[in-house]
Amino acid sequence: MRNLIILGEKKRIPPYPHHKDYIYRSRMFFAANSFYSLFAINGFKYATQRWWLQRKHKFSIPYVLLIDPTSACNLKCIGCWAADYDRKSEISFEKLDEILTDAKKLGVHDISLTGGEPLMRKNDLLKLFKKHKKLTFTIFTNGTLIDEAFATEIEQLGNVTFLISIEGYREKTDFRRGNGTYDKVIAGMEILRLHQIAFGFSTCYHSNNYEEVSSDEFLDFLREKGAWFGWMINYMPIGKDADRSLCLNASQRKFVKDRIDTYTEKNQFTIVDFANNGHKAYGCVAAGDGFLHINANGDVEPCAFFHYSDVNINTMTLTQALSSPFLRHFRHRKLISENPFRPCPIMDVPEALLHITNYKGVKSTHINQNETAQELYEKTKPLADDWKPVAEDIYDKMSIKEKKKFNRFVKYLLFRG
Prior knowledge:
By secondary structure, the chain is of the alpha/beta class.
């Protein structure tokens, strides 16, 4: 029987496609310590089926497909690249239905909805959740639009969970998200808890809140509110108007990493620290090896932060999109660093960002103000240079056994093509 420790108590995990099963498999994905542990993510049958389909189609099939159903949002957060998107962009219901149908055929089990604010399209989403009951859905949401009626429907479905954005206590959350947001977020969490819907938190940590959000006190607070897991995302200066003052320096990033590593081990609690958990995922998981992103304009991107593409889902099927020359090019150049603590081609090795995007047909997909790879490189290069010696020191302290394990696994990833 599968269990997770929640606030010191063992909680039984219902089978797929229950939303708690997604949380369990997320833990297994980011806790993988050998080739064989991958079977525990979805089971031996799924693992072998996925391997066979990848050989058949000659492309990697993502574990998780991230989709922006809309770029619209009821908030305007400081430093959010979606804030300068065209607020009218969205993928049609019919196209979303087609994507999900194709995803199931390819063996993709998990769909994450991002944005914009996905709950701006509640009615469409509920129809999709009901129709595609054999998929699990995770909604990255600001939490302000969760109400009793919506939670009641979600509880009855059982295949939907939430990652609720929160930036700290009231002062820090309202600083980025607007006055009154914190209280609405906590109210949304309480509604989900009362309906016994397991949810997680999504926290962007930056120079103004990194100490607060990585503290035991704050993380304990979120767990007591009902959170089963969490995502911690290092602030990235994506977009021409990004506030660079919010970027962390190397010592601040290391501070968060050490705190989160200690907390998760002590409490047996899953927190995905992006990109400080690159070693747990064996490097970058973009371009279909683990994750793939489709923005509200239909552009198929390697990940939600990598705003460059050569294909659009509105003109093709998901299978055709996964065959994208750019995605294949990206995967073949994914080993950007032999150091697993420098996994990201944006924040850690931006030289790779330039090489990867210098490819026929690739364009910026940042909808309103296109940002060239060179412009992004110039912003993240100093951050990467600052982080490099710290990452090298962490890697040097790994045991020889741990280093060999990582290198063997990288060869497996590259073999997938």
